UniProtKB/TrEMBL annotation:
Presence of the UniProt keyword Signal in the record: yes
Record keywords, A-Z: Signal
Official protein name in the record: Ig-like domain-containing protein
InterPro entries reported in the protein's UniProt record: Carb-bd-like_fold, SbsA_Ig
Domain SbsA Ig-like as annotated: residue spans: 38-137
GO molecular function: carbohydrate binding
Lineage: superkingdom: Bacteria
Keyword hit for Signal: yes
Amino acid sequence: MSNLEAQYFNAKNIVLIFMMMLLFGCASIQTPQGGPKDTKPPKVLNMTPKDLTKNFSAKKIVIEFDEFIKLNNEFKEFSISPDQERPPILKARKKILEIQLQDSLEKNTTYTLNFGKSVADINENNIIKNLSYVFSTGSQIDSLSISGKVSNALTGVLEKEAVVFILPVERDTLFGKKRASIYTLTDSSGNYKLNNLRKGTYKVYALKESEGGGDKIYQQLSDEVGYIKEPLLIDKNIENVNLQVFKELAPEFRILDRKLNNDGSISLIFNQQLKAPKITVMEPTAVDVGKKILFSKMNDTAKIWLTDLSFDSVKLAIQDQGKVLQMVNFNRGKKDNYTRDLTITDNITSGKLNPYQRYTLTFNFPVDSADPSKITLLEDSVKRTNFELVKDSVDFLKYYIKYSWRNKKSYDIKFAPGAFTAIFNAKNKEINKSFKLETIDSYGTLALNITVPDTTKSYIVEFIDEKKNVIKAYTISKNSTINFANYPAGKYFIRVVYDENKNGIWDTGNIKAGTQPEKIWYSPDEKSLRANWERVDKLTIPPPPKE
């Protein structure tokens, strides 16, 4: 081989080797795809000085983790107890968290640094919950604790991530004004434990904050709260300090939301459940004539239809039990236009009509008149005219179609345009409905023979579904038999309210008045209803639990 050929061969090999190195080099730096998502929070590897250090004199605390970390809302989440005028400064650098103490420390005092949910990993934001650091400037560390559970007073559900905090009795005036420095969060089973407490007398609270909350300060408008009525002397470790959170009734009436809708109706949402509500148009008084008002079942919302919209502004008075609670004004432009489409919904579920219910039509506007001749009913494609159209005697948004519905038949109903005419001459467009009658074999009945613990008291016995929605309720004060008849087969439960004031409703608590919610007992036995089955059970209501 000539020198020229050898040089060419070597050069060719060098280029080939370079290209192969480049190819494999590029492949080697690709990020692996897939794999399980990281769901674990960072782990503490080391603390300097060590946790639970005595005779503490450092100015800086360093906590090392097993992965890169970041801080979230540290100004809200982090606290030090006892409080300091100049709070510590937190800095996150890679896998290190530094806490710089700015203020001087009291002698012979145990300090607790509570990080709340402020520390998380930098990639997946997995949060370390209830991270804390404790030290003492003296020769002893406070070691008392209290523990227990937090549940919902109405549903009995154990509350996760509820805030449990204590306040020394002399600082109880800070409740609802400032975040407590001694607090913890409940775990997924509703358990909590407050450690390293100093001997003393405290008020104990639980707080379930609304979505978007997190300041750990009680907001009556949005949060649920629980409390131990009597101050608690902590001079030893105490277990089973259980709390129930509840939603307080607003102390003063207020309109939460008000709206003049696109169809000309008015919507109001209240912060209270009214007992005997009434709404009157004060100005102009002529507009009050012919108005239609529909309150919700709990009397905490209202929808108003005014038949005269010629006003520039209107003033409404909201009243309860004859007392004016608030006046509210609405303004409208003279050129405002409103869209009014009359729609119809019914009580058909999965194409089936409950044989124990009437076929019900619900409208979005008050209906002034109906024309049965514009309604066509087909039974197995055969036209039927012997049905009756009935208007609800109370609810002006409802009509019923009465007919002898039969099993194994298919029904088609056509509502021609203008079958119904609402206020402002709004008419429906053509609407078609189809369904069959559910067989009675799909329903069951439960008879409960109930024994009460005290015939001088009152009890509300509620039949509830799996989601704890009340299906039916009875108020009793003596041994009774009650029937929950003709309900769809499924799982049901019994809830009993100890109706202390005998007003027929469950009453919530009030911190200022020092009252707890009325007690509730859930029967531990599931009351399943089987299809085409009548069940008879006994229910012995126990005495209410003692506080």
